[in-house]
Amino acid sequence: MNPRLAAILENFKLPGKLLEVLPHKVGHIHDTYIATFRRSGEETQRYLVQRVNDHVFERPEALMANIQRVTAHLREKIAAAGGDPQRETLSLIPTQRGRSFYKNAQGEYWRAYTFIENAQSYEKIRDLDHVYQVARAFGRFQGLLRDFPPSALHETIPDFHHTPKRLAAFLAVAAKDPHNRAQFAQEEMAFVKERGEEAPILTDLIAHGDLPLRVTHNDTKFNNVLIDDATGEGVCVVDLDTVMPGLALYDFGDAVRSGANPAPESERDLSKVGIDLARFEAFVHGYLDAAGDFLTPLEVSLLPFSAKLMTFECGVRFLTDYLAGDVYFKTDRENHNLDRARTQFKMVADMERKFEEGRKLVSGN
Length: 365
Ligand code: GN1
Ligand code: MG
Hints:
Layout: H1 3-9, E1 17-23, E2 31-40, E3 43-51, H2 60-80, H3 85-88, E4 102-103, E5 109-114, E6 119-120, H4 128-144, H5 163-176, H6 186-194, H7 201-207, E7 214-216, E8 225-228, E9 234-237, E10 244-246, H8 248-259, H9 277-291, H10 297-301, H11 303-324, H12 336-353, H13 355-363
Antiparallel strand pairs: 1-2, 2-3, 3-5, 4-5, 6-8, 7-10, 8-9
Helix pairs in contact: 4-8, 4-9, 5-11, 8-9, 8-11, 9-13, 11-12
Bound molecules: 2-acetamido-2-deoxy-1-O-phosphono-alpha-D-glucopyranose and magnesium ion (MG).
């Protein structure tokens, strides 16, 4: 047993005896563990324990205030609809002092959630129904938060999906080239520069009041939806760190980015990477089945574009981090961020080729 983790867990209102705590490898940002407690007799209960990355999230207290408010709202709505709030949304475990996080003497921020059993997060898409379930779960999530005022949330990472600012950050680091890596990324850098014009399309529409700000998830990777083992349904949306005011299109676009490519995000064999139109179609159906009744016609017509823009933006972020020396995303190997940028740009190029087909799948003609 790791004594440091055991000591941290003592600060949470967790009933029973700690049996074990093991590292859990998910996401690119936080340190995550699963702690198992014995409650009574043989009965055990698991918890997901995370150290919040306060380099990425500079205001962990604001972040935790958001998560507390959003999960309280979701719990209420889910209960009112006859659902099971313990399964359909994350539940924070309070600390002994009744707070949503524990800050230790070293200044680390820790939080704990009930582990949702009999449901999985998958690292690979299983089939088209999995895609449909992911899209529907994110659409439902937005629907449940429709009556939550966006202004009541902190912006946990300012300008998170502000593509022009992401592009500006890329250009700044490309100009400095602090690690002499630009020489290895010439093609990728040119790819970005050729496409700069499309970057401000969504932010301009917000500025003109043409697209509504909503409460959105903003990190809609397909592995952020837990799939129920028994029913195969998308039962719970997780990873609520970036829930804040945003566009419905950010969520749809980023979900397509993560799930419409049959290969992993870090795939080195680019011949395997692209956008699968059958999966895109399942994303559209799942999302519109849940969100179709509140989206505006402009939002619906921009669904294909949002997928391309969010993929481009993510590629720009990976490339920026490669040039900056891998300071943001966790990496497992040399050139990991460059490989990730390459898969994103390969997808963008494929989306450009298939754009008209994608548009028809959304509009029906
Ligand atoms: C990060 O940690 P994870 O996998 O949930 C990132 C997302 C990126 C994603 C790319 C807070 O998400 O924005 O799309 O990596 N999250 C943050 O894999 O930056
Ligand atoms: Mg995340």
